[in-house]
Design goal:
The complex is a heterodimer of chains A (345) and B (266). Chain A has 3 domains: 2-39; 47-100; 111-343, MetI-like (MetI-like fold), CATH 1.10.3720. Chain A has 17 helices and 2 strands. Chain A has helices at residues 2-8, 10-39, 47-69, 73-98, 107-110, 114-146, 151-166, 169-180, 185-192, 210-221, 223-233, 238-246, 251-279, 283-289, 297-306, 311-336, 340-343; strands spanning 41-43, 102-104. Chain A has a two-stranded antiparallel sheet. The longest helix of chain A has 33 residues, at 114-146. The radius of gyration of chain A is 31 Å and the shape is elongated. Helix content of chain B is 77%, strand content 0%. Chain B has 2 domains: 1-33; 72-234, MetI-like fold (Orthogonal Bundle). The radius of gyration of chain B is 24 Å and the shape is globular. The longest helix of chain B has 34 residues, at 3-36. Chain B is mainly α and 266 residues long. The model of chain B has no long low-confidence stretch (mean pLDDT 87). In chain B, α3 (64-97) runs antiparallel to α4 (100-111). Classes of the chains: A mainly alpha (345), B mainly alpha (266). Chains A and B meet through α1, α2, α6, α7 and α8 of A and α1, α3, α4, α5 and α6 of B. Chain A: It is a multi-pass membrane protein. Chain A: InterPro entries: MetI-like (IPR000515), MetI-like_sf (IPR035906). Chain A: The chain crosses the membrane at residues 12-34, 117-142, 154-177, 212-230, 266-284, 316-336.
Chain lengths: 345, 266
Amino acid sequence: MGSLARAYGKPLATLIALITVIWILALILVPLGAMVQQSLWWRDAKGSVSLTIDRLYNDIAVLELDQGNATDPAKKAAIEAQLAAKQAEVTELEAQEKNPPKTYGFANFTRMSSLHFYIFVRTIIYALMVTLLALVVCYPVAYVVALASGPRKAVILMVCLIVPYAINELLRVYAWLMILDYRGVINGILGWLGIVDLDNRGWIPFLENPSAVFLAMIYTYVLFMVFPMVNTLETLDRNQIEAARDLGASTVRIHRRVIIPHAKPGIAVGCIMTFMLSAGSYSVPSIMTRGQGGDWFSQLVYRQFYESNNWNMGSAYAVSLLVVCTIFILIMMRLFGVGLRDIAK
Amino acid sequence: MSASAADSRSAQLVLNIYVGLFVLYLFLPLAVMSAAAFNSYDYPSVTQWRGFTLEWFVALAHDQRLLQGLVNSVLVALGVIVVSIPAGLSGALILTRLGQRSGTMLYSVLVSPVLTPGIILGISSLIFWRQFGVAGGLFVAVMAQSSFIASYAMLLFLARLQRQDRTLEEAALDLGASHTMVFRRITLPFLAPTCFTAAVVAFLQSFENYNTTVFAIGGEWTLVTEIASRMRFGLSPVINVVGVIFVVVTLLAATSYVVLRGKPKR
């Protein structure tokens, strides 16, 4: 802090510090805290309260009728007192009905139904599979782009990779929607070959199968694995590979002992990004399934917010997802022995 | 020569074929999507070809909701630039002056949004701003997106600041320049190219964003969220036309980026 003031002067340093603090508080930490807090309380919606209110209104109506008929002043006063008491009770209960008391606890987390928990676990497993498959598919590609081709070819390859990477993820999903749809490319070809009968709706319903989401997801996020690996592999001195080869190492051994150790930070970043994106993806499942395939966890979260209007439950789901992603990041960092600074390079 | 050379040549061939297939895998779906934009059939398809047409381009030009979405997207992206560039710059300036330990703490907090699933950033902003009576909409979308785009901007600034020659600033101070003058005449000009890059990156990230925006946008819409809801209900080749425009723009931008980036190397 002192060196900041020395370099830029007090007023400017204060401004810089202020902006950073606002960023941290208003955009990162407090919203996160608000979400966690929201996940920790709920309101008991008591149906019995509404019933009691209805009964009280009935009583009041009867009393009012009595009041109108009563002639004895003493009796009238008694009815009026009763009326006032009932009305006070109604006001209190209505306040409670509108704004039931908050209860704090972990019930939003433990109340997750078994179906939703199953979807939660399935989403994580699918995301892990997407990550693993992307890693296996991308490693050779990254190796070729970074090490095994001339500079000219590398540039062309980079363009070939950047273009699909930069195109909006929705459009990448949409392309697969067109391929797998009822009247999509694959069914079209099959129909042309006479295998399926499109005119009588005899198409194969690819979109009703969870693997459609899986396919589109790999396509959408595979490149987030390539670029971190290319970036780290580009810094590898090719002479090291030559030296290892001259010393008689086999290709497998060169990859295992020279190239992969060097690529570690890139592999870690690629895995973290791919996992995080696919576990938290809303775009791919919501477009690919159209409500017919199995749900992805992010869709449950969205519905809690925008359909059930249960923000507390939705927040609890979101926090669960965040916890899983954080654990995954920590495991990857430990596994590959990289720090946060290597990751964000 | 001989055995091992032939081995490595065939290995190279296998690798090349593999990469070729991979590139094909990346581009074929996009080609299918683009082709359907020119098909005169009101359901996006390439297998039922009814002849070449440009009618969907005309339809797009008359689609008020998509055009309004485009305007909203640009507004949000400009808002994100205004918020995230000063934030990212400030964060980077502080981090370069901090010691190892406190630096790492702050660094972890500031990059954490990059590693957080997008939907969570959208949700937490939505909840946070509702407490102030601000419902989901363009403003909340700006805030939600800025939380992680500012981190990207900060990383860009950090990389640039690492290459800064700090003695220049010190020399200016010794020669009697005021702090403001040093910042304005030395630090900012040094960072100017990065400011530009960061603004472009911020604009693109914001424009393309879906997973964060869809939670924060409430009843409003951006181009991307509107496209997404069209993809779910009511497919039309108009979406493919948007796709074609995205593909062409990206192709041009990526080519010029790689060419520009590749030049100083050689």
